[in-house]
Specification:
By secondary structure, the protein is α+β, with helices and mostly antiparallel strands. About 20% of the residues lie in helices and about 40% in strands. It is globular, with a radius of gyration of 13 Å. The mean pLDDT is about 80.
Length: about 100
Amino acid sequence: MSATQAAGQVVAGRYRLERALARGGMGSVWIARHLQLDIDVAVKFMTAEAATSANARVRFEREAKAAAKLKSAHIKTRNESAAAKSGTPQVEARRV
């Protein structure tokens, strides 16, 4: 799915990427295992190309903030937003 992510890779010291789930214009979504909490999560990464766009980074962060404010049993819970060591923005959410 992406040249920067691979199954088995540990991201941010706590997420082990299991498999790619989807890919879009701005990035990819991976199923991962949160190593400390022992839960499945979905981690969304921006592509390297999108990450170079200030506008795309603002939209990505806006999406993460908006998702964090949603409260429903039918909506994923966003847990964390950060930049990987590579500087590529990522968002982690509970897998539903």
